[in-house]
Amino acid sequence: MEIQQICSLLEIDWQACVSRFSGNEGLYRRFLFRFPQDETWEQLARAWEQQDIPGVERGAHTLKGIAANLGLARLQADSAAVVDAVRAGRTEELPALMEQLTASCRLAREILSQPVD
Amino acid sequence: MQSEQCVETAARRDTILVVDDVELNRVILSEAFREGYRLLEAENGRQALDLVLAEPDRICAILLDVVMPVMDGFAFLEEMRARDLLARIPVFLITADSSESNMRRGYDLGAVDIIGKPVLPYFVRRRVESVVELYRAREQLGRRVEQQAEEIQQLGQSIIESLATAIEFRSGESGEHVRRISALTTWMLEELRACGYPGCNFTDEQISQIATASILHDVGKIAVPDQVLNKPGRLTAEEFELMKIHTVRGCELLEQIPQYHSNPLFRYAYDICRHHHERVDGRGYPDGLKGEELSIWSQVVALADVYDALTNKRVYKPAFTHEKAMEMIRTGQCGQFQPALVDALAQGLEHHARGPETN
Fold it and tell me: Which of A47, A57, B70, B211 could join A86 in a cystine, given CB atoms 3.0 to 4.6 angstroms apart?
């Protein structure tokens, strides 16, 4: 897959992301393609499975930060929605929001696991 | 050269400490400062505190996450404040939680600025660097002021010594006499303080002020005619009256000094000038004060003056040995002194291997 394709599928603003890494493109790439191995998602999924709501909040909060730094806009928005729902006590919305987050996280992991041209 | 040294010390602050439990966040912040700074990273407040305490004079700024395991950002700020480090090292909170209560808490705990996550390196660097510059300039200025204050004090001291020496010079004395008096005064006061003598609980600064004031004990001799001051033989009663007047003239002279009323040194000097020829039994001059009426410092300088006069040659007498001088003092041949003060003189000389000149 080409970088351009990856960018459009994951809504990444490449230039903005590289400048977040102070112009060090190699460093950004390294962290971006390391995302599929990040364990935050597993921790969050486990917490959700056990209905550990503070754990869900912590995991979603960490994921939101990582997504923001890597420029994964959709993932950032979906994690933020989970964090906000927990903080506002709207737990009834969590099943739908977690489903959305699971989908966007899975997509990001899949795409970023592809070999890059 | 001193000011060059202080520039060097401030320039040694070259390290930015990045504190965040998430590696990605540390990497992004560190990358922003890679150029021009040395970087340290910590995963929580505890680790960060250890790094700060290891080299508190090298860190120029701390970029601090709030939510972390072991010790969070707020607890870290409290530890820094408890150790008085926040005045020297600016701490920036880097937080995703920009709620009013969170920001207020950060500022109240002493953070210098709060930067929202996700960070934009260019702006973080600008914000951090302007504060680092401010702290650096403030630190340099503070050091420079301290040094100048010390230089001014030394200058003041040497002016006092010059004045006193010029006056001593008229009676054939070198500058040694005033330096010896000042050393003897210091030693006696230290002995008296060490043995807990009443009214002698002086600070080092007070002892230093009294020692400087002691140098001025004879400034009033500027008003005594040469032929009286340098007469080899015994003074007539009339001449002795002229000589005695140096005590009163001395403190009158000091009263003309503008800082007189605000400077503790001059208050000591006034008392010493006026009363360094008084004796505890009330048989001294000019006021015939006795016992409790005399300050401890005027008694100390009186004794130092007598001892120094005895052990050195004068136009009217040869130099006596230490033993002879102490015997003359103890037997009251030079007027009455409190025994405790005479003991302090003996011990002070003992501890400093007899004689201020060896110091």
Answer: A57
Chain B's closest residue to A16, CA to CA, is B120
Interaxial angle between packed helices B264-275 and B204-214, expressed in degrees from 0 to 180 and rounded to the nearest 10: 50
Could you tell me how many helices (H) and strands (E) chain B has, helices first? 15, 5
A61 touches chain B (CB under 8 A): yes
Express each pLDDT in A48-105 by its tens digit: 999 999 999 989 998 999 999 999 999 999 999 999 999 999 989 999 999 999 999 9
Say what the pLDDT of residue B12 is.
79
Q: Where are the domains of chain B?
A: 2-144, 171-358
B118 touches chain A (CB under 8 A): yes
**ipTM here:** 0.83
3-state secondary structure of B314: strand
Give B-chain residues touching A24 at CB under 8 angstroms.
31
Range of the domain at A78: 3-113
DSSP per residue over B83-138, as a string? TT-TTTS-EEEEES---HHHHHHHHHTT-SEEEESSP-HHHHHHHHHHHHHHHHHH
Cβ-Cβ contacts under 8 Å, B119 against chain A: 20
Check CB contact of B36 with chain A, cutoff 8 Å: no
Average pLDDT by consecutive 10-residue portion of chain B (359 residues)?
A: 46 88 91 91 93 92 90 92 91 85 88 89 91 90 89 83 81 79 95 94 94 91 87 88 92 82 85 95 92 94 94 85 94 93 94 63
Distance CA B16, CA B318 (A): 70
Q: Which residue type occupies B78? A: E
CB-CB under 8 Å, B122 with A68: no
Q: Number of folded domains in chain A?
A: 1
CATH number, span B171-358: 1.10.3210.10
Architecture of domain B2-144 in CATH?
3-Layer(aba) Sandwich (3.40)
Angle at the Cα of B93 (from B43 to B142), degrees rounded to 5? 105
Residue B347 has a pLDDT of 94
